[in-house]
Amino acid sequence: MHQRYGDIVRVAPDELFFAHPDAWSDIHKKTGKQMDKAPWFYRPIEQKPRCLVEESPEQHSRLRRQMATGFSEKSMRDQEPIIRGYIDLLLQKLREKSNDGQPVVISDWFNYTTFDIIGDLVFGESFECLGSSKYDGWVKSIFDTCRPLTLVQALSFFPWLKRIALDLVPKRRIGLEEDIKRQQQHTEAKMRRRMAITANRLDLMEGLLKKKGELNLSTDELINNAQLLIFAGSETTASLLSGVTYLLLQNPVAYQQLVDEVRSTFGSEKEINFGSVSQLTYMLACLNEALRMYPPVANSLPRIVPKGGAQILGQYIPEQTYVAIPQWALYHHEEYFAEPNAFHPERFLGDSRFANDRRDALQPFSVGPHNCLGRNLAYAEMRLILALIIFNFDMKIDPDCRDWIQQKNYTLWQKPPLKVYLEPVARKSES
């Protein structure tokens, strides 16, 4: 659409999409008058208590400062043994599953792992997905509500139609409301157990819990922020791990280069940790290229132009206009990325073929005061999981999954099973 109609496309009477690298700094300003988040996208159900992404700029800043302590370098060092424990359990389960010669649905196992990790980092307890080899009911409800919530978001542009539609399909409405209520109840139970932990715990909720009174946070608001952390810190990471695995296995040269990097760098599992995986330059390039080709947040994160209007890409945009950057479209735009539909990690390693790429267009964690707090943790977690899997297994994609990446998106990718054959790497046991 953007390659046909240009960098700015009107997708609704009061909504514009901008597919240009410079739009990031114009829309997600670091200074000056900031653009509020579009309520139809972030609050499709209005009765819900607010969380970090929905707060006013002032309250957002206060909450963010407190939550940032859980993402500090010191906190990440404290969290690493917790994270490593779940990855070790993942490796154990994959070894067991690889024994029967059948392909493993590795996309599910990535989800089990990231949900268990984030559950522990938020609530002090996992969802037991890895242990049970299945999705917890709370986790499953997240996936079940994504599609109907996306439809509710779309209907928000037509309030009268939204009311009629919800009245005409009361069973669907009741089902959605029950799913959300069930999520709230499960989260409340977990949050109360987390609040009962008196020992200092440098996890992702500690900062908010310490300042709960000062920030005037209700239990409902704590629950909503916990749900945000669970959602943002699990499915996005798992999607990217599935995406990079698929793209590597579809590109044997890139896959072999990453295998060589990992296995020549490390002699044993004990050497693989947050610090050491940060030295894997080709792996980082693979992850960045996967973020470009298969961004976990493929759609836009809309904002509202403030009073007085704004200049975006040199054009005056009137106040109360919704503006957004469609990430998938921008990252596949041939004007900004050479060979945009091909997997080329080399574009992030100085290859002259990609000298004119606008790598600053790639902002999967957003920019400005609302950028993703968990960026460093996500990169560390993805590198550690991918390095340990590649160190321990040879992988081959199931032929049925050759077109796996052709998916629908309702806020989240609607991922079909990614089936992979795993062959444990034979090496002498570590002492």
UniProtKB/TrEMBL annotation:
Residues reported in the UniProt entry to bind heme: C372
UniProt record, GO biological process: small molecule biosynthetic process; toxin biosynthetic process
Superkingdom, taxonomy of origin: Eukaryota
Entry keyword set: Heme, Iron, Metal-binding, Monooxygenase, Oxidoreductase
Classification via SUPFAM superfamilies: Cytochrome P450
Molecular function as annotated in GO: heme binding; iron ion binding; monooxygenase activity; oxidoreductase activity, acting on paired donors, with incorporation or reduction of molecular oxygen
Residues making up the signal peptide according to the UniProt record: none
One Pfam match: p450
Cofactor(s) this protein requires: heme
InterPro entries: Cyt_P450, Cyt_P450_CS, Cyt_P450_E_grp-I, Cyt_P450_sf, Cytochrome_P450_monoxygenase
Oxidoreductase in keyword set: yes
CDD domains named among the record's database cross-references: CYP60B-like
Family label: Belongs to the cytochrome P450 family.
Protein name as it appears in the record: Isotrichodermin C-15 hydroxylase
Source organism (scientific name): Aspergillus lentulus
